[in-house]
């Protein structure tokens, strides 16, 4: 049945009241760690509440044990080349793709997500921000894979072109991946914010934190299985030392871990 106008819609005070109660009682998870803690232990797609945007967004939660922790919030995934990642600034700010396969959560969503766990911690009212950790799953066409983790993920606002500061390799020993290959302002094929005379995002056909062009490019063009790893496809510094065959990467994810979050 269709209603001609708002005043035709049957309203009851009680129903309205009931809906409001359900809304405010609904748990609104801020990230995947607390979804896991609340008993949803299967990996899959979940809604998370972005407080500062006052809206839900869907993400893929990785609930498997990763680096002694469970409940990682996936913000980027490449797996089959179905989604075109050669896109402009607006798409990278907004997000694109599908959390069930390949996707980019969007810079504005990632920025808000990374700030969700700020909370007041002492009686003087000082605000301590618990920074999320960031992890990267990488796998090439030979089946070689690693998980690389860094301690702090600090993403700044649009006013800084989403300047990223990732620091402290979180591995027990030195590896090919000890050096942090992801930092700086975000660039896209239509927006050059890198620190070189070139326009790296345009040359390498993706949106990414290209500081000096050559460190990483997980949003680069999806490679065929015969290809070698290069800056022209999905790139991560150190991979060509890790696998001497220099095989191209066929899979990547980028995910945040927020730890146990206070309400
Ligand atoms: Ca430049």
Automatic annotation (TrEMBL):
Keyword Cytoplasm (UniProt): no
Superkingdom field: Eukaryota
Sorted UniProt keywords: Disulfide bond
Organism this protein belongs to: Clavelina lepadiformis (Light-bulb sea squirt)
InterPro entries listed in its UniProt record: Fibrinogen-like_C, Fibrinogen_a/b/g_C_1, Fibrinogen_a/b/g_C_dom, Fibrinogen_C-term_domain, Fibrinogen_CS
Signal peptide range: none
Keyword match Disulfide bond: yes
Domain Fibrinogen C-terminal, first and last residues per copy: 23-260
Pfam families with a match to the protein in the record: Fibrinogen_C (PF00147)
Protein's name according to its UniProt entry: Fibrinogen C-terminal domain-containing protein
